[in-house]
Design a protein that fits this description.
The chain is mainly alpha-helical. The protein contains 6 helices and no strands. Helix 2 packs antiparallel against helix 3, helix 2 crosses helix 4 and helix 3 runs antiparallel to helix 4. The longest helix has 26 residues. The protein is globular, with a radius of gyration of 17 Å. The N and C termini lie far apart (48 Å).
């Protein structure tokens, strides 16, 4: 099973590398610009960059839904880490919410990554759309 997963990962990496080689200078510029916007949104609001990153990866790079979500998580992690360091040194981070919410985030991340692996892409897309819709409605009121 591990060998099979390794082969699938290797095939996927080869596919992505071939796709990256085909990106035009304009597409690369657009991706860098989008990365800057995603980083700004994540740093400014303390999260939310994934809501932009996932559709970007799906529409610009034409990645599969599951790969878009997994890649977004991998991209957002270092951004969030750097932002957290800045918040810690600026004195705007409170310890108790950080520890309690942070523990929940770690547990939720583990559970979410497990479900991302086993759920069909269509279900993941529907859940993502519902969360985005509910978040948008919540912001209006």
């Amino acid at each position: 099973n591990i060998t099979m997963m390794s082969k699938n990962l290797e095939k996927r990496e080869q596919f992505l590398m071939a796709k990256e080689d085909k990106l035009t200078g304009k597409a690369q510029f657009i991706l860098i610009l989008c990365g800057v916007i995603i980083g700004f949104i994540n740093g400014f609001f303390g999260g939310g960059g994934g809501m932009i990153c996932v559709p970007l990866l799906e529409n610009v790079l034409h990645l599969n839904n599951k790969y878009s979500h997994a890649t977004a998580i991998a991209v957002i992690f270092p951004i969030s880490f750097v932002s957290a360091i800045i918040y810690i040194f600026s004195g705007t981070l409170q310890t108790i919410p950080f520890v309690t919410v942070g523990s929940g985030v770690v547990l939720g991340g583990i559970i979410g990554s497990y479900f991302l692996k086993i759920l069909p892409s269509k279900v993941v897309r529907i859940i993502f759309a519902i969360i985005m819709l509910l978040g948008g409605i919540r912001l209006l009121f």
